[in-house]
Amino acid sequence: SMPSEILLKIFSCLDAVSLLAVGCVNKRFHELANDNGIWLKLYSSSLHPKRTIWKMKSKQTETVSLGCAALHDKEAGYWKKEYIFKKTSAFKTRVMRLVKFLDPYTGLPCKNKEAMKVSGLSWIIVLKDKNGKEHVVEKPNLSFKDTSLTVLWHGTDWPCLDILLTLKLFGVTPLLPDQSIPPNKNGPRRFSLIAEYHLANLTENSEVVGADELVQLFSLSPGLLVGMWKGKNEIAFVMANLHYNQLLERSILGSATVQYSPPPNKPLLDDIDSEYGLHDYRLHLDLHGRNCMYLCGSFKCLFCRKRDIENGYVRLIVVNVKDNRKHLPVIGTLGICWETDVFKGNVKDCFVMDLTLLDETGMPFWCFSAPVHMELSTKSSGLYDYMGHIYTADYADSEGKVCVEFVWLEETKEYIIVSLVLYVSTKKVNSWYGTNY
Questions:
Q1: pTM, full prediction
Q2: I want to staple 241 with a disulfide (CB 3.0 to 4.6 A). Which of 6, 222, 223, 283 is the partner?
Q3: Looking at the predicted structure, is the pLDDT value of residue 376 above 50?
Q4: H or E segment to which residue 204 belongs
Q5: What is the biggest distance separating any 2 CA atoms in the chain, rounded to whole angstroms?
Q6: Closest among 304, 316, 342 to 156, alpha carbons compared
Q7: Strands (E), 3-106
Q8: What are the structural domains, with CATH classification, of the chain?
Q9: What is the per-residue pLDDT for 175?
Q10: How confident is the model at residue 39 (pLDDT cuts 50, 70, 90)?
Q11: Residue 16 CB neighbours (<10 A)
Q12: Confidence of residue 59 (pLDDT cuts 50, 70, 90)
C-alpha cells in the first residue's frame, strides 16, 4: 500500500546488487526497480565518477536533466541493461588482462589462480531428467595443477541414471563482482556454458576408463569423468578436467545457452620456409591422478618431415623407442584418486593427461586435459635395457592423437615411457598456418 514515490525514494538508496534482488520480490517491485532514473544515477556514479549526469557526453545521454530524453525516451530497464553491460565488460577486460601474463617455461598463463580469485569464478553441474526437472550440484572440490584444474562433485541425493538425459557444466561468476566483498551465493549470478553431455545409455556409449572395488569410471569428451557405483545405476561422483588455456574463456565469455567459441587463428604466411608449420613445436606434458603428479615434462624442437605425413596426420616423435637416453621414468603407481562424503578410492591403470602443444611463435596450438586408460599389450618388451610387460595409452580427438607406450619394471616397481608420439591432424595444421599439407 506504500505509494510508488516513497518506494522509489527508498530504492534510490540501494546499491545495484540489492536493487536487482528487490526487483525479484513481485511484479510491482520489479517495475519500480527498473526505473531509469535510479539506474542512470548508478551508471553515472560508477563509470564516470568525475562527471555528473548533467555533464555526461555519451551517445545515450545527450540531454542535461533527468526529465529529458535520456530517461523518458528509453524503455523501462534500459539504463539497468546499460549499467550491467558496462560493468560486465569492464570485469571481463580486467580478468582477461591477467591471463595475458605467460609463464616462459610452459608458454601458458601464469596468473590463472589470481584471475579466478578476482572473478569470483566457480563451477556447477546441472543434471536434467526426463521430466524436464533440473538438479543443480554445487560445492565442488578443486585440485590445481601446472596446466589444468580438476573439479570434483559428489553427493548422496543425485537422481538415478535411468531418468537423466543431460549434464551441463557451467562456469558461474557474480553478475556484478565486487572485489571488496566475497561473492554471495544468493546474489545475481552469470552462467557460462562450458560443455553439455548426453547421459542416455552412458554405460554403453562411453569409454570405460577403469574400475576398483566400489566404482567404475566412464569418460565423456571433452574431459569429463563419471563414477558409477558398482552394481547400481547411480552416480557416485563427477570429475571435470579443465585446461587453463580454455578454462577462463569458456567459464566467463560464454552464455547460459551458447558455448564460447574462440576466434580463428590468423596465420602468418611464410613463403621462404618450405616446411613452415612442421617444426619448432614445444610440448608440455603432465600426467596426474588428481591429487598426485606422476610426470611433468617439457620438450622442445619437435618437428616432422614432409615424407612422414601419412593418413591425414603430421607425426611428431617426442620419445623414440630406440633412443633410451630420452626414456622417461614415471613416479608412483598410475591411478585416479576419487572421494565422496564417506568413501575414498584409487582406480589403477589410468590417469589424467594434460597436453599443451605450442607452435613456433609460442602460441597454444593444441591443448586438452582428459582421462586416459592403459591397456596391457600382447607383445613383450624387446628392449635390452627394459624387460617387462608393455602397456599402451592412447588419446584421440578431432585435432589429433597421442600414443604412449610404457614398460613395467617389476624389480623397481615403476613405469618407463619408452615411446611418445603425437599425431596432429593436417586439417588443424593447414587451418592454423594457412598451408596445404
A1: 0.84
A2: 223
A3: yes
A4: helix 202-205
A5: 91
A6: 342
A7: none
A8: 1-46+68-103 (1.20.1280), 111-253 (no CATH), 281-433 (no CATH)
A9: 85
A10: confident
A11: 20
A12: very low
Q: How many other CB atoms sit within 10 Å of the CB of residue 203? A: 13
Which residues lie across from 329 on neighbouring strands?
A: 416
Q: Are 228 and 235 in contact (CB under 8 A)?
A: yes
Give the number of other CB atoms < 10 A from CB of residue 276: 18
Residue 322 has pLDDT above 90, yes or no: no
Count Cβ atoms within 10 A of the Cβ of residue 26 and give its class: 0-12 exposed, 13-18 middle, 19 or more buried. Answer: exposed
Report the pLDDT value the prediction gives residue 382, as an integer from 0 to 100: 64
Report the distance separating Cα 192 and Cα 252, nearest Å. 6
**Which one-letter DSSP state was computed for residue 108?**
S
CA distance 244 to 235: 27
For residues 217-243, average pLDDT: 93
The predicted pLDDT at position 384 comes to 65
CA–CA separation, 289 and 153 (whole Å): 16
Sign (positive or negative) of CA dihedral 304, 307, 308, 313: positive
- Whose cell is 545409455? That residue is 201
Residue 169 has pLDDT above 60, yes or no: yes
* DSSP state, residue 262: P
In one-letter notation, the amino acid at residue 123 is W
Residue-wise pLDDT tens digits, 90-131:
888 888 888 778 777 767 777 888 888 888 889 999 999 999
Q: Which residues of 310-343 are buried (b: 16+ CB within 10 A; e: fewer)?
A: eeebbbbbbbebeeeebbbebebebbbbbbbeee
Handedness of CA 41, 44, 45, 50 (dihedral sign): negative
Closest C-alpha among 432, 245, 194 to residue 356: 245
Give the three cell numbers for residue 49: 565518477
User: Please, which residues have CB within 8 angstroms of residue 219's CB and are 6 or more apart in sequence?
Assistant: 206, 207, 208, 209, 225, 226, 370, 371, 373
> Environment class of residue 2 by beta-carbon count within 10 Å: exposed (0-12), middle (13-18) or buried (19+)?
exposed
| Distance (Å, whole) CA 423 – CA 396 | 9
The H or E element containing residue 116 is: helix 112-119
Beta bridge partners of 171: 123, 192
Q: Is the per-residue pLDDT at 62 higher than 50?
A: no
Give the number of other Cβ atoms within 10 Å of residue 71's Cβ.
19
Task: Say how far apart CA 228 and CA 225 lie, in whole Å.
Answer: 10
Quick check: 66 pLDDT over 60? no
Tell me, what's the pLDDT at 152?
96
Least confident of 72-86, 315-329, 404-418: 72-86
Of 410, 370, 408, nearest in space to 392 by CA: 408
